[in-house]
Write a structure and sequence with these properties.
Two copies of one chain form a homodimer. Chain A is α/β, with parallel strands linked by helices. Chain A has 15 helices and seven strands.
């Protein structure tokens, strides 16, 4: 009988061999998916096919079940592998209209602008980038352009749009700002031709448009920009049509309230000045995640957030009512009214409904994933 | 030349075959890691060996690099596989002291209590569960017990501890409450023997103690409970020693501020009553994550949060100062003082230092992972 340490070494050798085979497998799989990507881009088939993905996962889950491997493990691994393969399918795309069609991206050297430019270039368009350097020549550059996308910072969007009174009548005018009513109104006023507002629901750090949601607010002459929508679908985007004013009302809750809350939270921490590293060391992963959601704000551009918050006077009324609720909650605490706290808590739970439970489950799953990477752990 | 659809079918067949081999590989690997788990538990070797894990990952990353496979992909997959294998190493553990030693868990049928009971049972202790049914017989049951762990809800902890004046002098008394000073004082006052306070930094839904951080606040006669600390290390825990009062001061920032903020945020949404499903549809993944962090609170027990927030009058002063900062931020908005907002933002950024950037990077990584699972997407 060999000693446990020797046994362990032998078993570890076996694990290393199996893991080596895993890497071999991945290399072979990547070679095949690259071929798939090439066929898709040549024929214009969509990169992301939800049905195929669902079927692939279901078959492997069934096999896993039979072989006593946890199906969730297999699904997690396959999804991670597929995410990578969408990235390496980073090849050419079929052009949804006439190849060589002229497309201009104003702000095409910004983070989101660059991504848009790259996608059009890889789809055989003639792409014109207009940024600060080209701005004086914009009028000449935009002649003959069939699609002009405004992708500049939110506070410049309206001013830039207002200058575009010289586009060809058949040019599609579009923007990608996170608010929709004001840019859409400005585009409709300045331009006679087709108009559409877009809100890509992803940050500029997203690897592409695969699986990403893009909100579409129709402006005018929908049929004229059908090819542009099809092009985004070819890139893998999921399009959702919405109404500009409803969209913006929601944005007040989503963006303004969140950023304002995080700002005040950060201001409070800064003023109280606790030892941040001790705070992190004493936090469980869920608190570390919450702290990270505040911290991440302050790694970004203050001007952007000032613009989002100060942009709209309706936001002020909303935030003042928020303050009132803050005061009410403090009052519960001052009067030690636990019963009323629990009553309100229960009402809010009812309002959230099943979503609260979904959040709890999702965030737990997410923490397990963070844990794999030792993210959000003590630094 | 076959048509693209047929080519695609052939390639998809190849992918399915490779994925089948992947599941086979996982089954073989699980068989080996189960043997590893058995050897470790029989000999008392720790379940989690950071050096072995680091070496395993480094070798596969190097191989991946050579074969043109993204090393990050390989690392992500291996970490996910290892997480699972720690779970299936869910076998017996070596007992760090005399097998059959009597251990009692008060509140052993609660979520965290159950986990502790299971770990001790799988380590060959004689485990006594004391919950409501057994409470009247507690004194008799606790005779001869060498370790008594109080794992009841926070608001009952002190009352329960105060009754334990009859434990044997050599019994180790411990608690697992998320605050430390008050329980530690109570334990030291009621019991003459060894005392230690623990704060396990994970929720009761954690799959075990592997890789989890446990904060240790020493009470009295450390050498008497050394075996208990070793037992937790055998379970895979990472122990961190801290000071009870510092720990609790940090908790006020961590728990109370977060929960209070989320409560007010939920109360505000409830009172404003926007269409929640539309809000979710119009949110990008990062906002959905932020909303989920609020929503998850309301899927939980209001009594627990009432206890955490109302427990401590020092918290009231902290929250009142928080309100003042809220008012100050509203004032910036009312007076349209963008410059001052940006100035404060910059100061707070400096205070957060590099941590803000880490948060930004970590949260982006986390969102990519959430994306694999289509978590936090439109429901």
């Amino acid at each position: 009988m060999t000693d446990p340490q020797t046994q362990l070494e032998t078993l570890r050798g076996q694990i290393d061999e199996l893991d080596q085979q895993l890497v071999d497998l991945l290399a072979k799989r990547a070679a095949v998916t690259t071929q798939v990507g090439n066929i898709k881009s040549q024929t214009g088939m969509p990169t992301y096919v939800p049905e195929r993905e669902a079927q692939l996962i279901a078959s492997r889950r069934a096999q896993a079940q039979q072989q006593g491997v946890p199906p969730d493990l297999v699904e997690d691994l396959l999804r991670r592998i597929m995410r990578e393969s969408y990235l390496t399918q980073n090849v050419q795309y079929r052009c949804a209209t006439l190849p060589g069609t002229k497309v201009a991206v104003i702000g095409g050297r910004g983070a989101l602008g660059k991504l848009i430019v790259s996608l059009f270039e890889r789809s055989h368009y003639d792409v014109i980038v207009i940024d600060q350097t080209e701005w004086p020549q914009a009028k000449a550059l935009l002649a003959g352009v069939k699609l002009c996308i405004v992708a500049v910072p939110i506070k410049q969007t309206i001013d830039i749009i207002n200058t575009l009174d010289y586009l060809d009548d058949d040019c599609v005018l579009a923007d990608v700002t996170s608010i929709k009513q004001a840019p859409l109104d400005a585009m409709l006023a300045v331009h006679k031709g087709p108009v559409v507002g877009l809100h890509p629901m992803f940050g500029p750090d997203a690897p592409g448009m695969v699986k990403q949601v893009v909100i579409i607010c129709h402006g005018r002459q929908n049929e004229q920009y059908q090819w542009f929508l099809e092009q985004m679908i070819t890139w893998g985007a999921q399009l959702t049509v919405s109404n500009a004013s409803e969209h913006d009302a929601d944005m007040a809750y989503i963006q303004v309230m969140r950023h304002f809350t995080s700002f005040v939270y950060g201001a409070h921490l800064h003023a109280e000045d606790p030892d941040l590293s001790s705070l992190i060391a004493h936090s469980s992963p869920i608190y570390r995640l919450e702290l990270a959601m505040v911290g991440r704000l302050f790694a970004q551009d203050p001007n952007l957030y000032a613009d989002i918050i100060f942009n709209n006077t309706e936001n002020l009324a909303l935030l003042k009512r928020f303050r009132t609720r803050f005061d009410e909650a403090i009052h519960l605490f001052e009067t030690n009214d636990k019963a009323q706290f629990i009553e309100q808590f229960t009402q809010i739970s009812k309002w959230f409904g099943d979503y609260a439970k979904t959040c709890l489950v999702d965030s737990k799953q997410l923490l397990l994933k963070a844990d794999d990477d030792r993210m959000l752990r003590k630094k």
